[in-house]
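Researcher: Structure for this, please.
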Amino acid sequence: MNILFVSSEATPFAKSGGLGDVIGTLPAELVKRGISAGIMIPLYKSIKEKYASSLVLLETFNVQLAWRNQYCGLYTIRESGVDYYFIDNEQYFKRDRYYGYYDDGERFAYFSKAAIEAVKHLEKKPDIIHCSDWQTALIPIYLRTLYEQDDYLRDIKTVFSIHNIEYQGRFNPYITGEILGLSQEDEKLMIDGDSINLMKGAIKTSDALTTVSRSYAYELCDPFFAAGLQDTIARYSFKLRGIINGIDTSQYDPQKDKNLRYSFSAEKMEGKLKNKEALQEELGLEVNREVPVISMITRLVSHKGVDLVQKVYDEIMALGVQLIILGTGDREYEEFFSWKASQYEGRAAMLNCFSSELASRIYASSDMFLMPSKSEPCGLAQMIASRYGTVPIVREAGGLRDSIEPFNPVSRKGNGITFRSFDAYDMLDAIKRALEIYSDHRLWKHLTANAMKKDFSWDGPVEEYMDLYKELEKKYEQETEV
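Model: Predicted structure, C-alpha cell format:
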C-alpha cells in the first residue's frame, strides 16, 4: 500500500500550527509499520532558501489551470524514511508567509492541480491520496470531475481530513471557471449560498472523511461547532470517523529536550523546579518555585477562548499566580495582554512572538497549562504540556475532552482539570480547583505523574488510520472484481 499525503504544510519544512506537526509525523509512523508513505507540499520561499543544496529535481512540466499554462518543478528530499515532494512555482510560493494573500484561492488551486499532475511523475503511484483542509480540498473534487476519465488516476482513493472546520475555503463563484477550470455543473458540488465552498466539495467527493478526535466528529453535526456545514457533515457522516492525533513522544521528552537547562522525569522532578526558576529569571518574574505558574501557548483568536481570560484576568492574578502567555494573533488581544502584563510587573509576561525553543521552556517550567478553547478539534498543546508534568486546565471540547480526564482527588485518577461551559467564571473555578490540589503536595504529585504517564503517542491513532486505508483498499478490490 502506498499513501501520499498532500498538505499545505509539514514539519520539519513548513509549520504554522498543528497541521504541520501531524503531516510531518503520521507518515513516518506508517513507514515504521511497513506502509509506504510520502508527503507533498508547496516549495515555499523559506524551504528553497534553507534546503537549496539538498533539493533534488525530479521533473519539470506544465499545469493547465483554467486558461493558464503554468510551470511546475517537482523536487524531493528524503527525511526520516519518508520521501518529501515539493511543488515549485515562484509566482505562487516565493512569498514570506504561507497564507494570507489575496490570491490564496488561485495559489492552492494551482497546488492541488499540480499535485495531481505530479502523481504521474512519481516512481510509484499512490493507492490513496490523503488531503487536509481547504488548501487541498480541490484534489478529491478534481479527481471526481476533470480527471474522472483518466485511466491512470481513476482508481486512486482519497481521504479528506478536517483539522479545523472554521477555515473552509469560501470564494466568489466567479473563480469556478476563471481559476479552477470547472464547469457550472461541477460548481454544484461546492455551492454554498452565494459562495463556493471548497471544503464542502471535498466532503462530498472524498472516499473517506476524517477529523482529529471522536468528540469533534460528533460536534461537527452541531451548528455551534460546524460553521454552517452541519447539514453536509450529517448527510455524509457515514464516511466520517474521528481519530485523535498523537505527538512525537521522542521529541517532547523532558529527559532529552535540548532546549531545557535541566532534564527531569516523573520520578525525579527537581529539574522541573530548576527550570521554573530559570524561566522566572529569564522573563523578569519573581524567582520563587512555590508560586504557581500558569501558562498559555496559543494563537490569540476568539475560538481559543482568550476572551474568557481577558474577562477575568484580574481575578486570576488575585489568586496569587504568575501568568505567562506566548503567542500572536488579533491585535486587540495582543495589546490587551501586553497592557495587563505591564500592570503586573514581576508576576505576568506577554510574549508577542513564537519560538519553539521558548515554547519548550515554558511547557517544561510551568505548573499549569490553560486551554479554555471555544472549539478545539484535537489540540496538541495539552498533550505536550502533560509530557512535561504541566497540568492541563481545559474546557471539555473536541480533542480536549478526549485526551484530558478530570482528576478525582479521592480515586486519584485523571490527568488534568476540566470545565464544561464556555464561561469565564466556570474557567476561573477550574483554576481555583487546580490551585487547591497544587496546595496539597501529595495530590499534586499524583496528578503530575498521571499527566506525564498518559500515552499520547501515535501507536493507537496509527492503527486506526491503517484500518481505514485497508478498508479503502478492500473497497477498491471489490469494485474491480465487479
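Researcher: Any notable elements?
Model: The chain has a mean pLDDT of 95. The first helix runs from residue 18 to 32.
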